[in-house]
Amino acid sequence: MFARRLAEDAARIQAHFDHVLAGADPLPVTQAMAYATEGGKRLRGFLVLESARLHEVAPDRSIWPATAIEALHAYSLVHDDLPCMDDDDLRRGRATVHRRWDEGTAVLAGDALQALAFELAAHPDCGPASVRADLALSLARASGAQGMVLGQALDMAAEQAPEPLTLAQITRLQAGKTGALIGWAACAGARLAGAEIAPLARYASALGLAFQIADDILDEEGDMEKAGKRLRKDAEAGKATFVSLLGLEGARARANELVAKAEAALDPYGLRADALREAARFVISRDS
Amino acid sequence: MFARRLAEDAARIQAHFDHVLAGADPLPVTQAMAYATEGGKRLRGFLVLESARLHEVAPDRSIWPATAIEALHAYSLVHDDLPCMDDDDLRRGRATVHRRWDEGTAVLAGDALQALAFELAAHPDCGPASVRADLALSLARASGAQGMVLGQALDMAAEQAPEPLTLAQITRLQAGKTGALIGWAACAGARLAGAEIAPLARYASALGLAFQIADDILDEEGDMEKAGKRLRKDAEAGKATFVSLLGLEGARARANELVAKAEAALDPYGLRADALREAARFVISRDS
């Protein structure tokens, strides 16, 4: 049931990407943009669509920020995979963009996907100007040097640090690196409706951390075939993770606590938020 | 007189960068962001401030999009200079970001500067939500795969092409690569005022092309010391330029025609647009 809803939302986002990318010049950069947006769980887009449903926002409005956050996420993966960053050959089970094309194309395609994210978040079909300005501004804050890029920069600095990071430092790093976009996605529905974002922000804060702990567990004991990407990177690099700091059992217990916290944050919405509750449980049970 | 006004506007933009970047975590990425925004003529920011003056928009509103377009321009330079793109060591008379730090820092700093550009363009102090949404959407379109990145992608494709580009192809390439941001900058004042953008769009279209022709002339016969960057790149790479296609005299004549056209586009504004007229003449007389 939940898996079907996730798959349906993913298909709707893919169809919207096909729509907005149609008619682009047939250049390596535009082909790489389309390639980079294919596949993946679309969890961030799902959070936008479901938080919008919760606020009774029409799907033909919420599809724009849902596609925006997936474009932004895709750009971050393309740049993260570059040789000067994580140097990965495999992503979502296929060659990374710089392996399929070249590094210059990967830099440009990522850059264009970031611009596309803002084009979609500020699109007239999102709703009134106040909503569009709010979506664009909050997306910029979530993705920039106080959000996602801060997390990546802290991650980069950690590689040079003499000591592994502490739990507090890893938590801050991940709040930026994965938490900021997940937070934006979960709050987007409230922003579209002009409603209070606080309950969804609390939900997303716990969810984002649970997501990252689950990622660390997957990195430790996951199946590379299912994950569609290289695993065991952090352990090989001697980097601290939630698993190295808490142990496997401790990390699982912490992830379960966070999911309970995320579910409780949805209490104000009652049963209508069940899809978001299931998303929280899904996040720690997935195998990719 | 014009030089002083340009320098004053540049100083105001620098002060605003100092303001918005203050308080950032002292990481290589945030230091690289500040470094990349230093120096330069600030022509794009000047166009925002002057087109805003023309529409009697308060400078404490127009400083936001002026700084936004300079952040976006700075990101494009940082990524353009990367080894996998133009591979340049020198920019604005100093080491490029990836030479001063490393490639990963340059990729991330560029990414964060792009996000910063949208944060500034959608900032509440720009004015009403309708203006902020319009600024963010038009900036995304100008910078993405139908604007600046399209120009860069066409430039990249040209390097692989069996034949040098024609005049029509170079004109289209440059309309994206440099024209799109110059166009956004010149129209920003009208957008801030909710006024008609057509006359400024015509002005910017001629100005952007004149700017690029002047760049090709500088690349051919400029002084590398004054330019603060590597010159003669296109000739060495055997790439077509306005100079290779029109000859030096032909290129100068075309640039002069375009400046006359840009000035004429400002007729509806009368004498109030004199600073923008001077900017057009400056663009083809500069030595850097």
From TrEMBL, chains A, B:
GO terms for molecular function: geranylgeranyl diphosphate synthase activity; metal ion binding. PROSITE patterns: POLYPRENYL_SYNTHASE_1 (PS00723), POLYPRENYL_SYNTHASE_2 (PS00444). Its EC number is 2.5.1.29. GO terms for biological process: carotenoid biosynthetic process; chlorophyll biosynthetic process; photosynthesis. InterPro entries: Isoprenoid_synthase_dom_sf (IPR008949), Polyprenyl_synt (IPR000092), Polyprenyl_synt_CS (IPR033749). It catalyses: isopentenyl diphosphate + (2E,6E)-farnesyl diphosphate = (2E,6E,10E)-geranylgeranyl diphosphate + diphosphate. Its cofactor is Mg(2+). Keywords: Carotenoid biosynthesis, Chlorophyll biosynthesis, Isoprene biosynthesis, Magnesium, Metal-binding, Photosynthesis, Transferase. Pathway: Isoprenoid biosynthesis; geranylgeranyl diphosphate biosynthesis; geranylgeranyl diphosphate from farnesyl diphosphate and isopentenyl diphosphate: step 1/1. It holds the Pfam family polyprenyl_synt. Catalyzes the condensation of farnesyl diphosphate (FPP) and isopentenyl diphosphate (IPP) to yield geranylgeranyl diphosphate (GGPP) needed for biosynthesis of carotenoids and diterpenes. Belongs to the FPP/GGPP synthase family. This is Geranylgeranyl diphosphate synthase. It comes from Antarcticimicrobium sediminis. The lineage of its organism: Bacteria, Pseudomonadati, Pseudomonadota, Alphaproteobacteria, Rhodobacterales.
